[in-house]
Specification:
This protein is of the alpha/beta class and about 290 residues long. The protein has two domains: about 170 residues, 3-Layer(aba) Sandwich (Rossmann fold); about 90 residues, Orthogonal Bundle (6-phosphogluconate dehydrogenase C-terminal fold). The protein contains eleven helices and eight strands. The protein has an eight-stranded mixed β-sheet, sandwiched between helices. Strand 4, helix 3 and strand 5 form a beta-alpha-beta unit. Helix 6 packs across helix 10.
Length: about 290
């Protein structure tokens, strides 16, 4: 059995721990700055042993599943300690700051910059679920900077979890994620904030909220300690996406003020195409083995 050391025992670290442990091929070691998370993971059964950072030198795999603002420093520390045959990969949703921090590290070829596009709005060890990554897209950035053998082993590990693999430049990754992921979370947080400020009667929110509000505001339940660093780390691309979003909101507001039903309808018809794109992608993913 190979030792897998996971640093960060929340939703992402715990979910991959569950899947790897279920294969029977791995022994799961863990570290978390929150000691209650370590004990909880042990009780849940998907963590075999709590260890110290020094144990990275004994692990076949080291998985970094911490908030993105800690990834660059942690990656350098881990690479300083690992054995030559160890494979290290992260699970962060921002890639360029990490890739930049380790670009000239002598053991750079041992790290694979990974982003599985999967998750829920929940956090902590109890949020971990099996098969979280099945049929989900997993992006690997800067693959040419990783040892080919270690890269291939990492790809095969993710494929064994049911993931689909795409290779991408780290800057392009962060730019695209600002629009299709990070902006969605900002919108959800701000919708929740707006409603709470306008509607002070919580019973009215409960009574009147329909499925549209519930689905739109779902992401507002996401963990702030996870998402605040994402917004700040990717601020350049997020600010650009926010500016464009605000412009579109202002345009929509103006059309309502002008009572321009024709233009409002035209814009909404245009937006319907997003649903068609997502439905087509979902169908394709379902059909793929």
């Amino acid at each position: 059995m190979e030792n897998v050391l996971i640093i960060g025992l929340g939703l992402m670290g715990g979910s991959i721990a569950k899947d790897l442990k279920n294969t029977g091929n791995y022994r799961i070691l863990g570290i978390d700055h929150d000691k209650s998370h370590e004990q909880e993971a042990l009780k849940l059964g998907w963590l075999d042993e709590i260890v110290s950072i020094e144990k990275v030198s004994k692990a076949a795999w080291v998985i970094l599943a911490v908030p993105v603002n800690h990834l660059p420093t942690l990656a350098v520390e881990v690479l300083n300690r690992v054995a030559d045959n160890t494979i290290v990969f992260d699970m962060g949703s921002i890639k360029h700051p990490l890739c930049k921090a380790i670009a000239h590290h002598p053991k750079r070829t041992q790290l694979v910059a990974v982003h599985p596009i999967a998750g829920t709005e929940y956090s902590g060890p109890t949020a971990a679920i099996a098969n979280l990554f099945k049929r989900k897209l997993t992006i690997i950035c800067e693959p040419h900077l990783t040892c080919p053998q270690k890269l291939e082993k990492t790809i095969q590990l993710w494929k064994s979890l049911g993931a689909r693999i795409q290779l991408m430049d780290s800057v392009e990754h962060d730019k695209h994620l600002a629009y299709v992921s990070h902006l969605s979370h900002i919108s959800s947080f701000m919708l929740g904030k707006t409603v709470l400020e306008i509607e002070h009667d919580e019973r009215q929110i409960f009574n009147l909220a329909g499925s549209g509000f519930e689905s739109t505001v779902r992401l507002a339940k996401s963990a702030p300690p996870t998402w605040a660093p994402i917004f700040l780390q990717n601020h350049q691309h997020i600010l650009q996406s926010l500016d464009e979003y605000i412009d579109n909101l202002q345009q929509f507001r103006n059309l309502i003020q002008q009572q321009d039903e024709q233009q409002l309808t035209a814009i909404m018809h245009q937006c319907n195409h997003v649903g068609e794109i997502l439905a087509g992608i979902a169908l394709k993913n379902h059909q793929e083995p």
